[in-house]
Specification:
It is a single chain. This protein is of the alpha+beta class and 301 residues long. 35% of the residues lie in helices and 29% in strands. The protein contains eleven helices and 15 strands. The strands form three sheets. Strands 3, 4, 5, 6, 7, 8 and 9 form a seven-stranded mixed β-sheet that branches. Helix 8 runs antiparallel to helix 9. About 7% of the residues have low confidence.
Length: 301
């Protein structure tokens, strides 16, 4: 196994001057985990729920635990295991291959559940597999790094009667892995095609700062924005404007001392990407000022 859950949870105020540990436990049955996640999928995973136990037809002969669509329009398959099961990744990849061969069927499902607009914006370049289990082995973690698919391994635990914890064990983005220097060069080149050198350098600095926040940061490219994802989006970078970059973060604007020309509450306002806090970046100094906000959004994801 990858190791026991490191988080310890304590209740305070139960006994005078002391604390009581809440012992973590696994679900009684796999269906309990599935039901809990499906009922709150958008809050827990940033994924809009589409279907449960979705049949893949008589030829394929399987049932996908959960189907969904994430914040960037990527199709998502979620597979669950109560404890540790070496077959969960291969099972999920089996269903992912089926999904890629049945795109029209999936888009029809999206259209029925979420509407025509969502169906027209499905991002087929970034399908995802999320495996939620009691634990994973080191071989599981190694295996996902050998696949050229977006795979998230997520460990769950139940605490007491009303607490549910999720922990990202491993997260791998689809496609070939590119070293950080090559990523910076690609970002700079793309930005330079849109704007001048100063904006290209600024976009490169933002990209490096967001990717460098920790392990398991995936970058998802859409025409309207670039999303930085840690299971859920935590930052969305829009294409450079003439004199500034806009980054949207998953930080509650009410918790931030808003500064005119730098941070803005955009909750309820239409914009590309996800997040209610808009950060406006014009200089390298602004990128430094935004580091704490970047870190807060990453931690929340």
């Amino acid at each position: 196994m990858t190791g026991a859950v490191g988080l310890k949870l304590f209740r305070t105020g139960i006994t005078k001057g002391g604390v009581t540990e809440v012992t973590p436990r696994l679900a009684e049955v796999e269906a309990d985990v599935q039901g809990l996640v499906e009922a709150h999928m958008e809050a827990l995973l940033g994924v809009r729920f589409l279907a449960s136990e979705y049949g893949t037809g008589p030829v394929h002969g399987g049932r996908i635990d959960s189907l969904g669509l994430d914040e960037n329009g990527s199709p998502v398959i979620v597979e669950y295991k109560r404890g540790t099961d070496a077959g969960v990744i291969n099972q999920g990849l089996f269903y992912l291959a089926w999904l890629m061969d049945h795109r029209a069927e999936f888009e029809h499902l999206v259209r029925d559940r979420l509407g025509v607009m969502a169906a027209s914006q499905v991002l087929w370049s970034g399908p995802r597999l999320i495996c939620i289990a009691g634990d994973f082995t080191r071989y599981d973690v190694h295996a996902v790094r050998e696949h050229r698919r977006s795979i998230d391994l997520v460990r769950y635990r139940l605490f007491g009667s009303d607490l549910f914890g999720l922990e990202a064990v491993a997260s791998v983005s689809g496609g070939m892995q590119v070293n950080r220097r090559a990523r910076r060069q690609a970002v700079a080149q793309a930005a330079a095609e849109v704007e001048g050198t100063s904006m290209a350098e600024l976009a490169s600095a933002v990209d490096e700062a967001l990717l460098g926040l920790g392990d398991g940061v995936n970058r998802v490219e859409r025409k309207q924005y670039r999303a930085y994802q840690r299971l859920r989006n935590f930052a969305c970078l829009c294409p450079p404007q003439r004199s500034k970059l806009l980054v949207y973060l998953k930080v509650d604007p009410a918790d931030v001392d808003l500064v005119s020309g730098f941070t803005r509450d955009v909750s309820g306002l239409g914009h590309h990407g996800t997040g209610d806090l808009e950060v406006q970046l014009r200089t390298p100094r602004d990128v430094e000022r935004a580091q704490d906000l970047f870190r807060a959004s990453y931690a929340a994801a």
